[in-house]
Write a structure and sequence with these properties.
Distance between the termini: 72 Å
Number of strands: 17
Shape: globular
Length: 388
């Protein structure tokens, strides 16, 4: 009997023994304890394991069955949490850095590995991958039971190496096989251009550590040059640490709450300081289902302080902090323990931000170019003119 199986028996039997003992001491007339349903669920879980091991059509590998059960428990939390096998736990525990090159994808888990963001100019972008695509296989490995932690590592490698993806978009019966060559990121974090109407368009491709300073320089220059306002494009921007989103928000928010990171029993509130809010010109943010992490924290700060309107689609809802919880048999749980919330107290994680003006992204068949017209950008300029 493996240590995992012994642990399972202990997990199932101990709460039941305690439940029976406590129930006897309290008497039949006492109200049921708050955890009664949990004990009932554990009893049912034990019955299912017993049925599988004794009556399934062929003998089963109990460790494999238990790994699947634990994976299911983690999947029931949120897409960012995961049950980790030994090699996955070892990589995180050792602080092993990601391989130096990638294909420009930020992914999450939703049945398969799902694309959240695609970096501008990356191999994935050039191949036409988009937010919402599903990766059914990565180098021949099925992703049905794969965590986003493992998916992210498999997409990385040495520059010049290749990775083969089986991509689903729309019709699951029509997968597309794509081979991408990994490369070091070449995208400039923040770029800008002048629009015909005098507005300044700012594209934040990713929130690197230097992105807030670059955004501030562009915004201050536009302000001095008499630009009528900023359209900041965060569509598909999913790469970056939330702390960099907070730093970027300080450029625009002069007073009020910039960010709140809340756990079950603790809360960290970041307020604007007297030196914040250097850029005062009107701004509108373009967001999409691929706006995540730092970009969501940044967008929430500006929307929550009525500093900028959001135009586009609801955001991804990926703005939280996870930690590694070690388990027996060299397994682990990568578990969300804190999440960012809006100034109104609504969780961003798993819910996303709702735009002030909704504009859907066009549906593009695989292999075809995106439309030449940008309806969301046109609507953002319209909103900016109203503010000006």
């Amino acid at each position: 009997m493996s240590s995992k199986t012994r642990l399972l028996i202990l997990l199932i039997s101990t709460p039941l023994v305690l439940f029976v003992g406590v129930g006897g001491l309290m008497g039949a007339s006492a109200p049921p304890p708050a955890g009664q349903q949990a004990f009932a669920d554990l009893r049912l879980f034990g019955q299912i394991v017993q049925l599988i091991t004794s009556s399934y059509v062929e003998p089963v590998d109990v460790d494999k069955v238990m790994d699947g059960a634990m994976r299911g428990l983690a999947d029931g939390l949120d897409p960012s949490s995961a049950y980790l096998l030994p090699e996955e736990r070892d990589a995180i525990e050792a602080g092993a850095p990601l391989a130096p090159a990638g294909v420009g994808l930020v992914v999450t888990r939703q049945f398969y590995i799902r694309v959240v963001g695609v970096e501008d100019g990356s191999p994935a972008a050039k191949a036409g991958l988009r937010t919402g695509d599903y990766l059914r296989m990565i180098d021949g490995k099925p992703t049905r039971d794969m965590s986003s932690v493992t998916g992210t590592r498999l997409l990385r490698g040495t520059a010049g190496s290749s990775v083969k993806l089986l991509v689903l978009r729309g019709n699951a019966a029509d997968p597309h096989e794509v081979t991408l060559t990994r490369a070091a990121s070449s995208a400039t974090a923040v770029t800008s251009k002048k629009l015909p109407g005098g507005e300044t368009y700012v594209r934040v491709a990713r929130f690197t550590h230097d992105a807030p300073a670059a955004l501030k320089q562009i915004a201050e220059t536009a302000q001095k040059d008499g630009s009528s306002g900023l359209v900041i494009d965060l569509r598909g921007t999913a790469d970056g640490a939330p702390a960099d989103g907070v730093a970027a928000a300080r450029i625009f928010v002069k007073s009020g709450t910039i960010a709140t990171l809340a756990g079950r029993e603790n809360k960290t509130v970041t307020m604007a300081s007297p030196t914040d809010g250097a850029v005062t010109m009107p701004a509108v943010l373009l967001v999409s289902n691929g706006t995540a992490n730092a970009a969501e924290v940044f967008a929430s700060a500006l929307q929550g302080n009525t500093r900028a309107a959001l135009v586009g689609e609801p955001t991804a809802g990926i703005a939280a902090a996870q930690r590694l919880v070690k388990l027996p048999d060299n397994r682990a749980l990568w578990m969300t323990t804190e999440r960012y919330v809006t100034s109104a107290g609504t969780p961003i994680h798993e819910r996303g931000l709702r735009p002030d003006v909704g504009v859907g992204e066009p549906s593009v068949p695989f292999g075809e170019p995106a439309p030449a017209t940008d309806d969301a950008l046109a609507k953002a300029v319209e909103q900016l003119k109203k503010k000006s």
